Amino acid sequence: MDNIKLHIKDETILTEIDGEAVLLNIDKNAYYGLDEIGLLIWKLLEEGKSYHEVKGEILSRYDVEEQVVTEDLNRFLSDLKEKGLVTW
User: Fold this and answer.
1) Domain of life, per the record (predicted)?
2) What pLDDT, on a 0 to 100 scale, did the predictor assign at position 84?
């Protein structure tokens, strides 16, 4: 996934309430809850960061092995794509 160009779909809205975050695709009525790291990833995507930059940011902030970040990030992004919240 290193070479993919991630795009947030225009129909996707982020809502943050009391420390929790939810993404909503208004066209599909699909929603997705975000934890702390999911919210970080989303905000980095909003800034236009690449897959490689997002992965690097997670590695710099958290004490976690690169393989774990790669697997978790790939799964998270695939889930977002399946819900219609991002494209690549």
Assistant:
1) Bacteria
2) 87
